[in-house]
């Protein structure tokens, strides 16, 4: 007969086992180390399905991926690459070769797919996959016609009703507040020092700001990079501030092209000003709007944009088929359709549940449309369908963070923002940083969304110092970029120049 005294240690051991992560080598089909030379490890962790239900034993399984420290590990850093709704593990794995040197090589780097994303309790708004796909494809541009915005508003009402009818219990437990609790559950399961080390990009900064506000005493080191205005995210009809410098950055495509010269940017060969090139681009967009050209769906990188303008507006050499064959393409196929659809649903489930504003009718939302259009000509329409759906959202979340973002964390937060980021402006970093006592904003004089898009030896030194010993830069510090737009060089060149161990660098 087993005594109660004998049983207690056994129960304690079982409880501990449920809260630990067993790491094993990842399936190479998922994380192929031949293309990204990092020996990824994978693991799972069961966390509460509903943190507000204290009597429920229902669990949710998180899927995690780890890039082990090449040096002796000082602990783990958790990452969130953005979204909401994107495949965090997949996005993290592609950037891991850059993140390892940036963190000094002496931390394990970990990411997990947030609840609601990929196959972690994905939101189902329709039981029929065909209807799911139609819902995704009906997210059309609101300015496509005179009635486009009103049609999209009606689409948002139908979508929100469908999600409420079919989501089930999952629809109410995928908020950022719950993901923040998941982060802390992972920290506890790692059984290190009980402190959170976190680097969040884009929406990951909203997650980081939220977890820091909910658990300020658990913050050891935290970088919030490409900063969303968390106040608008939770409390505005739309994220207006995100797009305030988008048009300015669109213009920079052409000014940088002239600076780069024709050897790097073919549009510079036409002896035209940057303003004339941009005008030609807008005229081309207006023509295509009324007379569409079937050319596929390209990832709009700067070289892609100028190459298309060269061919379509100036009659440059090379058919579109050649361009399409040499550029990254987003294809909607039977294989990736579920991922695309689930990502759109996850965006709704997370953002709409987080946002605490509801609008009763189209007329009351119309001023927000006007504001978005006037804020940015190039990006003001980009997320209109999401905003309209969220304003009519019907699922009541179990928990949404409603507290203050005036926070004193145990250790200060480092904010990073590219000066030339067309998605999250420098202004947003300062807006959020102002509420976090002792925090500092590092400005990077680079282009793109997030510091990893702007290679800089100064950023490397500053970030290394922060992870090593918590050293913050002086207020007002601005790091120069080491790579100019249209140049082929990237982080590996910066790392080599800084003497980073060559085995950490992805030379692809």
UniProtKB/TrEMBL annotation:
Cross-referenced Pfam families: Abhydrolase_1, Abhydrolase_4
The AB hydrolase-1 domain, residue ranges = 77-231
Q: Which UniProt keywords apply?
A: Hydrolase, Signal
Q: Where is the Peptidase S33 tripeptidyl aminopeptidase-like C-terminal domain?
A: 378-479
Q: Where is the signal peptide?
A: 1-19
Q: Coiled-coil intervals in this record?
A: none
InterPro entries linked to this entry: AB_hydrolase_1 (IPR000073), AB_hydrolase_fold (IPR029058), Pept_S33_TAP-like_C (IPR013595), Serine_prot/Carboxylest_S33 (IPR051601)
Recorded superkingdom: Eukaryota
User: What family does the entry list?
Assistant: Belongs to the peptidase S33 family.
Name of the protein described by the UniProt record: TAP-like protein-domain-containing protein
Organism listed in the record: Aspergillus cavernicola
Query: Upper taxonomic classification of the species?
Result: Eukaryota, Fungi, Dikarya, Ascomycota, Pezizomycotina
């Amino acid at each position: 007969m087993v005594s109660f005294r004998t049983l207690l240690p056994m129960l304690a051991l079982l409880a501990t086992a449920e809260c630990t992560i067993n790491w094993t080598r990842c399936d190479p089909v998922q994380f192929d180390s031949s293309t990204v030379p990092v020996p990824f490890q994978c693991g799972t962790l069961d966390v509460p399905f509903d943190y507000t239900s204290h009597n429920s034993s229902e669990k949710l399984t998180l899927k995690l991926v780890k890039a082990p420290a090449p040096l002796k590990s000082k602990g783990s850093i958790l990452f969130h690459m953005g979204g909401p709704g994107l495949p965090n593990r997949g996005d993290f794995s592609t950037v891991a070769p850059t993140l390892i040197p940036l963190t000094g090589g002496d931390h394990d780097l970990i990411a997990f797919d947030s609840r609601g994303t990929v196959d972690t309790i994905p939101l189902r708004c329709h039981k029929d996959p065909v209807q799911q796909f139609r819902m995704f494809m009906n997210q059309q541009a609101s300015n496509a016609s005179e009635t486009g915005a009103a049609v999209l508003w009606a689409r948002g009402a139908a979508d929100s009703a469908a999600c409420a009818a079919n989501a089930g219990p999952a629809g109410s437990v995928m908020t950022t507040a719950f993901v923040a609790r998941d982060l802390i559950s992972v920290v506890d399961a790692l059984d290190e020092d009980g402190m959170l080390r976190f680097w969040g990009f884009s929406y990951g900064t909203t997650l980081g700001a939220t977890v820091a506000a909910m658990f300020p005493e658990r913050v050891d080191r935290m970088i919030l990079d490409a900063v969303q205005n968390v106040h608008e995210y939770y409390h505005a009809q739309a994220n207006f501030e995100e797009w305030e410098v988008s048009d300015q950055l669109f213009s920079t495509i052409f000014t940088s092209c002239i600076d780069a010269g024709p050897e790097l940017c073919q549009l510079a060969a036409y002896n035209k000003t940057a303003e004339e090139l941009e005008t030609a681009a807008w005229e081309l967009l207006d023509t295509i709007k009324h007379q569409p050209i079937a050319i596929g769906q390209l990832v709009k990188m700067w070289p892609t944009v100028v190459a298309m303008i060269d061919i379509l507006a100036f009659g440059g050499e090379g058919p579109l088929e050649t361009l399409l064959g040499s550029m990254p393409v987003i294809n909607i196929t039977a294989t990736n359709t579920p991922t695309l659809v689930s990502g759109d649903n996850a965006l709704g489930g997370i953002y709409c549940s987080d946002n605490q504003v509801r609008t009763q009718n189209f007329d009351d939302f119309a001023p927000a449309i006007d504001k978005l259009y006037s804020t940015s000509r190039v990006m003001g329409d980009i997320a209109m369908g999401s905003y309209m759906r969220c304003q009519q959202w019907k699922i009541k979340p179990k928990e949404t963070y409603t507290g203050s973002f005036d926070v004193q964390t145990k250790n200060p937060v480092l904010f990073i923002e590219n000066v030339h980021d067309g998605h999250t402006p420098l202004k947003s970093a300062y807006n959020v940083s102002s509420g976090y006592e002792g925090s500092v904003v590092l400005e990077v004089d680079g282009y793109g969304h997030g510091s990893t898009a702007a290679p800089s030896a100064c950023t490397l030194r500053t970030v290394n110092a922060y992870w090593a010993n918590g050293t913050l830069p002086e207020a007002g510090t601005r790091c120069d970029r080491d790579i100019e737009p249209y140049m082929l060089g990237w982080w590996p060149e910066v790392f080599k120049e800084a003497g980073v161990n060559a085995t950490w660098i992805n030379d692809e």
